[in-house]
Amino acid sequence: MTFRLSHLLLCALLAAPQWTFAQNLFAPAIEVDGRVVTRFEVDQRARMLELFNAPGDPREAAREALIDERLQLAEAARIGLAISEEDLLSGMEEFAARADLSREEFVAQLASQGVDETSFRDFVRAGIAWRRIVRARFGNEASRVTEADVEDEIRTPPAPGLRVLMSEIILPANNPQNAARSREIAPRIAEIDTIPAFAAAAREISASPSRDRGGQLDWLQLSELPGPLRSAISSLSPGEVTQPLSLPNAIAFFQLRAIEEVAMDAPIRSIDYAAFYIPGGRSPEALRQAAELDANVQTCDDLYGVAEGLPPSRLQRDRLPPDQIPADVAVALSQLDENEVSTALTRADGQTLVYLMLCGRYYQDEDTLEAVDRSAARDALINRRIGRRADAYLAELRANADISYP
């Protein structure tokens, strides 16, 4: 009996630290109208946002998102809206497809980075519920949009735009060793808060051709940058640095040096560009081939002759909205005029040089009004109106909620 009792006491003592840890992990971090958000949920969401390369501080963004989702799900429960398992799985499949993965593959990738499937399910469930609430509450906005509204939308002169002066530090991540080294360096870069310090770091460690200029880039139109980068830059004050952003084979940091308002002739709707891939990366032979192309290629169409007889994968030509262009490509294109070329990028773990050429930028102006897709313009107007109503609705829910941080 004595041995058994001692054994039980020993087991209890050994288990005590784990139990205390579990208590702390699942302790309330936030309470929203009596509904608890645990520390575990905040940790999991912050990790997921980091994997999604979301701009801003991931823990702060996680707390704000989880508060909103508690309110959204509470409103769904109030009106009797339930999300079925079938709808949830379909929503998870749809989200995973954005990364060209199946639901199972996406969940496995999250798990490999320490994110539990439940966290992903909760994220998707709240998103589905809120979209349905908004659709039911504000869906009649569609009937209020007239043809005159659509014409006004098309013909309204563009608001003044913004251009930014940035610097960059690009850390290589084209193999496990470089990726590990870059992740080790990254926290030091994120703490930089002065322009001279960032320039010094760029000269020392950046893998970009801009390192010789202290990472400095020319003025860029904010509207030409892809959505995540545009959001990250928009939230900065001069001297501040973005959180690390993942690019193909690299980790990037951008520092805002200056921002100013500029008149815009018209918003950019799409960008036409071509990428000719040269084996050899930044080897002397590959750079020599790029120089030969410069001497013989005047327009993007000339590249079709260069690519004749080569595998189709050697030449890529796309015309895409800015938000759909890969971030590193968008930054490079934003520095080019029509038919100008950049050879700053590589692919295939640095083994392929990208001969990137800007073919043209396409705007919505008087010359192209007749070609404008009225249906797309109408949808954009409806979505913007519904988005404003939904934002105001959520703000009202937050204003009336009892939110505390135990």
Annotate the secondary structure layout.
Blueprint: H1 2-25, E1 28-32, E2 35-38, H2 39-51, H3 58-78, H4 85-97, H5 103-112, H6 117-138, H7 141-144, H8 147-155, E3 161-172, H9 176-190, H10 195-205, E4 220-221, H11 227-234, E5 245-247, E6 250-262, E7 268-279, H12 284-296, H13 302-307, E8 315-320, H14 327-334, E9 341-342, E10 346-347, E11 352-363, H15 374-399, E12 403-404
Antiparallel strand pairs: 1-2, 1-12, 3-4, 3-6, 5-6, 7-8, 7-11, 9-11, 10-11
Order of SSEs? HEEHHHHHHHEHHEHEEEHHEHEEEHE
> First CA to last CA: what distance?
44 Å
Overall mean pLDDT stands at 85
Main sheet overview: 5 strands, antiparallel
Query: What are the low-pLDDT stretches, counting only 5+ consecutive residues below 50?
Result: 1-22
Structural class: alpha+beta
The CATH top-level class label of the largest domain: Mainly Alpha
The tally of strands reads 12
CATH architecture designation of the largest domain = Orthogonal Bundle
Number of helices: 15
- How many domains? 3
Q: C-alpha Rg, in Å? A: 26 Å
Measured by DSSP, the beta-strand proportion falls in: 15-25%
Shape descriptor reads globular
CATH topology of the largest domain: Triger factor/SurA peptide-binding fold
Give the full name of the CATH homologous superfamily of the largest domain.
Porin chaperone SurA, peptide-binding domain
Measured as a percent range, the helix fraction is 40-55%
